[in-house]
Every structure is written in structure tokens, then in C-alpha cells.
Amino acid sequence: MLWASQQRPSVNQLWQECWTADPYGYRWMTLSSGMGYSTFISAKKILSESGLFIFKPDKSIQHHAYAHRVGAMSPK
What we know:
Blueprint: H1 2-5, H2 9-21, E1 29-32, H3 37-50, E2 53-57, E3 64-69
């Protein structure tokens, strides 16, 4: 996606990780990112505000979040 490639590297990286985890957006996926906590939070905020992904925190595991592509079908 052109938009993601024009963002700072951390946003582009997280977008790629989200897309790779579930390119069709049919389910919530656990993400594991190697980026630092503040970098992850900043990139996640930009992706959330863009409307491309929805994130739910998983407070039991640091640096993890669930992502679901906006506009995709929700699991039943």
C-alpha cells in the first residue's frame, strides 16, 4: 500500500506485520513485534487513526496486541 510506504519506518513495519498476520482480515490475530514499547505504541496509534486496523490490548504479554483489519468480516 502506497500510504504505508510513505510513513515512518516503524509505521510501515507494523502495517506489514499486521497485513502479513491476516491479509484478509477475517479474524483477530496476535501480533509480536520486535520494536520498543514506545515505538510500537506510536506506530499503533497512527495505524488506528488511519482507520486501517483496530487493536485490542493483550495486557498479559508485553509488546503484543490483537489487530483486525477494518472493513473485514468479524468472526462468528
